[in-house]
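Duplicate of #3305? Posting structure anyway:
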């Protein structure tokens, strides 16, 4: 064994392996060090020639060392099964004298955890395994113990031993909640750790839930790539020849460039650009066959198809300007706005009107151009007839209006990935509707690259020749034999027309084929003389797409269509939960006013747009005076039309009806009720008003004074032993912090539902964890006794060392109770199993108090008490 090891060492770790180092992003010292390390382990180095910009003898190379995937031979290397690794792979392999897994050191942007090394603290085993597996799958690494290489420590609080060790050793790492990784996985991008960083993570601080979310820095991925049509002329690099970095990949050295006729520029500008290309060592040619680079505006025409099929570089004018300015090659498909755009947009987007929110500066310009490139209509102001709102987060007036109007709210990933994959992605995708708390998604803008396979299949696949031949077959009157665009036939994008049966006679190969026809179809297409073989092959391809088209058409026929499908639940009840009808939630009703106040710094003031009924009167929205939450009022039940009209009238008066119980000024109900929304909204310290407030406003077309319509709570107060007006005074003192630092457990199937109590507890600043009777790492600890805190949070009666479990008086839960008591005692806390009445009373009275009747014990349950 020793002889074998010594022989391996003498041969060198990189024996029989050849390397090429891509110099971009590396200093001369780093390059020299890498060469020395590889040579010392007997590796063969094939030099990279910057003047050529391509890798020589690519087939002989086993490893390419590069900081980025943005070099000309990247995809060709992948096709040849050549490993592309970051420079850190070399040093990591040498440190253990064993070649590390190259995948965890890949510069592939899809592996967004590639720079992450995690170490998990004292978290549940199941969560730990899921996080570690996910990190590895996304290109990251895991460390069983703390070391200087660890970048992220996953923990639930700083009490964790590893957290204390990391702090005492002053390790340069981030201590984050497990939620950070969950949210990264949900959106498929590495998002900011800031809201998840211990000791005071923003996502758990409900006081700042509505505080402004910090603006995102301009993403490096969209710099100089915000528009397909550059506004300013390109500028030559200012470095003189002797100062120019020798490691740069030359953009035009030895390259012939063909400028397409569809570029909108004068002969003078063409001459200037040609001179700049020649200054970079290239030339401008007139024939496509001679070109190495083709620059055009649209994915259209024989020149575009041929150069793309030949594997040559194809980009737009914005990409060409980037190459001229930086004299460094970059992949045109890496940035959305560097590649020619589709001439007719993405199928299906032509019917959409899209607005954006919470993006500013270059990010806003980029998204505006991306919307236009898809073929949709971009609107600077958000109106009632918009179909989609693209936003970086949901803390904005536009998002509230979108919820009320029933407009689909999505993040920019839906727009980017639809454009990248050349088809409309389903809006039901969870990652497109998810907004991580306290996070501005603008920070990951532009991280999506165009899907090379999808673009090829849609626009220049060699298999399209048969379809092109079929399209060339014409009728006697000159009409094309098939009016279905080739792009539709050869893609899995949904067609916009229904499949219809072809009644004409066909050959056996296509007999009784149902063919999707466009709206301008012609009944006599099969009477066309000419090449039937090519046409039949095209029809077979259309037949293959028919099932997908039929499914899409079926989806479109659903009430509300694709983007407005689905019903919202009615008010969730804690007690007395009758089944509600299938009417839409009132928040989805349409307002009669067509605009919303602008919330972005670059948008114009809102203008009035007449509704479909063409009303002459066009009133601007009044500023929101009150945000009202309504509970247990039956006036709008089963009557969407009435709800729509009356809520629109109330909004015009300045009263916004909302279901968001985290921000409420007025809480309206016929009497104090125990619904989830009512109880949770009390933490906002709203003014409690009776339903007569709405009666007066709708009758007199003006808002009355709230104090004239106070909610009558006398019977409720007598039954529960506290006054509602005093409770609201305490709520003002508490500021959503009544249960701050509390962790309360709740059984899964408790009456009213776990989520109901979770939201009530979180609205008051606490944490709620589901208890299933399983061994877990406790996330609660003894609450410190502080006189000032007790006064401000009304916690005088809190013992501090009591751990609560909300449950039902059910014998089936006895086993769970025993496990819970064991857990509490293990952590030196007093277990207390309580009825739901306890948390409802605490939340509604807004102070911590206790009654023995609320405690659950086995003997009492057995006795039926």
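Output from current build:
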């Amino acid at each position: 064994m020793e002889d074998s090891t010594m022989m391996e060492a003498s041969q060198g770790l990189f024996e029989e392996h050849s390397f090429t180092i891509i110099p971009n992003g590396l200093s001369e010292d780093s390059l020299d060090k890498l060469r020395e390390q590889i040579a010392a382990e007997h590796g063969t180095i094939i030099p990279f020639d910057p003047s050529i910009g391509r890798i020589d003898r690519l087939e002989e190379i086993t490893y390419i060392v590069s900081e980025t995937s943005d070099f000309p031979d990247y995809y060709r290397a992948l096709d040849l099964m050549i490993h592309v690794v970051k420079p850190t792979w070399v040093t990591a392999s040498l440190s253990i004298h064993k070649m590390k897994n190259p995948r965890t050191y890949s510069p592939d942007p899809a592996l967004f955890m590639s720079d992450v090394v995690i170490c998990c603290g004292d978290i549940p085993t199941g969560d730990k395994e899921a996080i570690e597996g996910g990190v590895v799958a996304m290109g990251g690494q895991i460390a069983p113990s703390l070391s200087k290489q660890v970048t992220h420590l996953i923990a639930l609080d700083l009490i964790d031993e590893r957290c204390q060790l990391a702090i005492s050793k002053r390790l340069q790492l981030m201590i984050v909640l497990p939620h950070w990784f969950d949210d990264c996985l949900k959106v498929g991008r590495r998002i900011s750790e800031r809201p998840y960083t211990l000791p005071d993570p923003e996502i758990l601080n409900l006081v700042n839930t509505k505080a402004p979310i910090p603006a995102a820095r301009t993403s490096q991925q969209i710099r100089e790539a915000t528009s397909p049509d550059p506004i300013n002329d390109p500028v030559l690099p200012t470095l003189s020849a002797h100062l120019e970095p020798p490691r740069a990949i030359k953009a035009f050295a030895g390259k012939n460039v063909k400028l397409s006729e569809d570029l909108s520029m004068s002969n003078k500008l063409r001459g200037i650009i040609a001179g700049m290309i020649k200054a970079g060592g290239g030339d401008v040619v007139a024939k496509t066959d001679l070109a190495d680079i083709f620059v055009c505006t649209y994915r259209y025409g024989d020149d575009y198809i041929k150069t793309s099929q030949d594997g040559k570089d194809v980009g737009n004018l914005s990409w060409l300007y980037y190459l001229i300015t930086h004299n460094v090659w970059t992949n045109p498909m890496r940035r959305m706005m560097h590649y020619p755009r589709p001439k007719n947009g993405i199928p299906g987007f032509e019917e959409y009107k899209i607005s954006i929110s919470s993006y500013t500066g270059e990010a806003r310009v980029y998204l505006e151009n991306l919307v236009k490139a898809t073929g949709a209509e971009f609107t600077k102001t958000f109106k009632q007839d918009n179909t989609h709102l693209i936003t970086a987060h949901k803390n904005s007036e536009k998002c509230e209006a979108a919820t009320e109007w029933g407009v689909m709210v999505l993040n920019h990933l839906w727009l980017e990935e639809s454009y990248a994959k050349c088809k409309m992605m389903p809006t039901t995708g969870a990652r497109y509707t998810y907004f991580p708390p306290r996070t501005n998604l603008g920070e990951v803008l532009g991280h999506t690259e165009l899907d090379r396979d999808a673009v090829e299949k849609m626009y220049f696949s060699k298999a399209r020749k048969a379809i092109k031949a079929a399209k060339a077959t014409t009728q006697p009157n000159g009409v094309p034999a098939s009016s279905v665009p080739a792009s539709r036939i050869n893609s899995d994008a949904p067609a916009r027309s229904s499949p219809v049966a072809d009644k004409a006679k066909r050959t056996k190969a296509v007999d009784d084929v149902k063919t999707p026809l466009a709206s301008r179809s012609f009944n006599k297409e099969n009477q066309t003389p000419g090449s039937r073989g090519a046409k039949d092959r095209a029809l077979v391809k259309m037949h293959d797409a028919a099932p997908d088209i039929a499914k899409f058409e079926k989806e479109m026929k659903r009430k509300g269509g694709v983007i407005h499908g689905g019903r919202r639940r009615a008010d969730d009840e804690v007690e007395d939960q009758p089944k509600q009808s299938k009417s839409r939630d009132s928040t989805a009703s349409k307002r009669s006013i067509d605009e919303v106040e602008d919330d972005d710094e670059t948008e114009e003031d809102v203008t009035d747009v007449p509704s479909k009924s063409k009303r002459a009167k066009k009133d601007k929205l009044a500023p929101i005076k009150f945000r009202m939450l309504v509970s247990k009022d039956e006036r709008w039940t089963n009557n969407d039309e009435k709800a729509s009209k009356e809520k629109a009238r109330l909004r015009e008066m300045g009263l916004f009806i909302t279901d968001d119980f985290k921000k409420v000024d007025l809480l309206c109900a016929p009497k104090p009720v125990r619904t989830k929304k009512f109880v949770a909204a009390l933490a906002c310290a709203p003014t409690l008003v009776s339903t007569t407030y709405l009666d007066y406003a709708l009758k007199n077309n003006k808002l009355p004074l709230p104090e004239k319509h106070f909610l009558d709570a006398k019977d409720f107060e007598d039954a529960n032993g506290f006054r509602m007006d005093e409770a609201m005074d305490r709520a003002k003192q508490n500021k959503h912090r009544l249960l701050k630092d509390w962790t309360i457990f709740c059984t899964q199937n408790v009456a009213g539902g776990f989520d109901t109590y979770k939201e009530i507890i979180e609205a008051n600043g606490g944490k709620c964890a589901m208890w299933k009777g399983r061994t877990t790492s406790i996330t609660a600890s003894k609450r410190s006794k502080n006189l000032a805190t007790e006064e401000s949070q009304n916690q005088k009666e809190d013992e501090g060392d009591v751990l609560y479990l909300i449950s039902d008086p059910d014998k089936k839960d006895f086993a769970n109770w025993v496990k819970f008591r064991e857990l509490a005692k293990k952590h030196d806390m007093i277990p207390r199993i309580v009825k739901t009445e306890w948390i409802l009373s605490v939340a509604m009275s807004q102070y911590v108090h206790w009654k023995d009747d609320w405690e659950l014990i086995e003997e009492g349950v057995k006795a039926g008490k």
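Confirmed duplicate; merging threads. The mean pLDDT is 79. The chain is about 30% helix and 10% strand.
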